[in-house]
Specification:
123 residues, alpha+beta, 38% strand, globular, 2 helices, 2,3-Dihydroxybiphenyl 1,2-Dioxygenase, domain 1, 8-stranded mixed sheet
């Protein structure tokens, strides 16, 4: 089973200041809208998301169906299959994808230390 693309989603206080900071580290904007207070930035294979006011803490993010360039990747493991697998393994999910749907969906789970992991499928 493939989790797809990986990134860190950062909860930032000032997206403009954060954008400038990460540009100095060599990142450049590849997706997003600063007016909507979210940007996806990339440096080589490294991807970070900057999100102002959307969530409280930083989140580890996996995108089934995407490669590290945000391009569709087939075949891929559907987010609902991942959800069923983790529940079968005895994990308690924070949020769940609707099993009666297809296409884009997401769920969240926390590791033993409370670090939140978002599995977010866009295709």
């Amino acid at each position: 089973m493939d989790l797809g693309a990986f990134s860190i989603s950062l909860a930032v206080k000032d997206i403009a200041n954060s954008k400038v900071f990460y540009e100095k580290l060599g990142f450049s904007v590849v997706h997003g809208d600063i007016d909507q207070k979210w940007l996806i930035m990339k440096h080589g294979d490294h991807v970070i998301g900057l999100f102002q006011g959307m969530f409280e803490n930083n989140i580890l993010t996996f995108n089934p169906g995407w490669d590290q360039n945000g391009q569709s990747k087939e075949p891929h493991t559907d987010v609902r299959e991942w959800q069923r697998h983790l529940k079968k393994e005895g994990l308690t999910l924070l949020t769940e994808a609707d099993e009666s749907t297809e296409g884009p969906a997401s769920f969240m789970v926390a590791d033993p230390d409370g670090n939140v992991i978002l599995v977010d499928q866009h295709i």
